[in-house]
């Protein structure tokens, strides 16, 4: 099939649909002006499209850099996961070696956060419970409650630091690897 | 040459090409792909990444023919990064050359 400039550009645009407008337009501009300049040098649209390479590969490469950058700027669970998935989908890593450990580590973090929350909740409910039924006196309940909440806060601070550190380390690892083994697929 | 290896040195080549003077995307893409067997389109994501990492700044300049061109200019961080890569590359290639020379000696 003959690939025209129009085909190529709309395919690329479709593949990059999820990216914010401004970024997408900036990327598309590069390819648009590439076609323009290829034409000035007497190349046909089809030749230029062939030379540029598969739009799917180009889109993956663009998206990878973008997602890693985003995750670096804001170390959130969503951003880090997107970067991990983009890396896996480009074929840089075996799913077992990157996605597996990542999911496992996220599982551990979620468990730690749940424990933190449970401790805080236990503290509050002990106090509330003592005002209704008489298992503990209010003073006893208050001290147990304070201990629980205190432990919860301490754990929370620790887990928070751990979570941030984990996301930062993941991104560092992704960047390191994508630089060394860029573009395994042709 | 092996594809993975080529893509690794692409970054170095792009930086060195712009150290001689600001270049526009098309120029770099064509130059790189004439020397290496790499899809021309893959050069742009690389330029993008290097810009995001602060090694390039870009500006638009009108051209006589067609639309304005996006020029890439090496930043101070880019210069430093390039020097580091050149250093890495030369110690690497010296090591390989030494092994080759020792290997093919009769």
From TrEMBL, chain A:
Keywords, comma-separated and alphabetical: Membrane, Transmembrane, Transmembrane helix
Residue stretches spanning the membrane: 83-104, 135-157
Taxonomy, superkingdom: Bacteria
A UniProt-annotated Pfam family: HAAS
UniProt-recorded name of the protein: Uncharacterized membrane protein
Biological source species: Paenibacillus algorifonticola
Source taxonomy: Bacteria, Bacillati, Bacillota, Bacilli, Bacillales
Automatic annotation (TrEMBL), chain B:
Pfam families: PadR
Highest taxon in the source lineage: Bacteria
Protein name: PadR family transcriptional regulator, regulatory protein PadR
SUPFAM superfamilies listed in its UniProt record: Winged helix' DNA-binding domain
Transcription regulator PadR N-terminal domain boundaries: 14-82
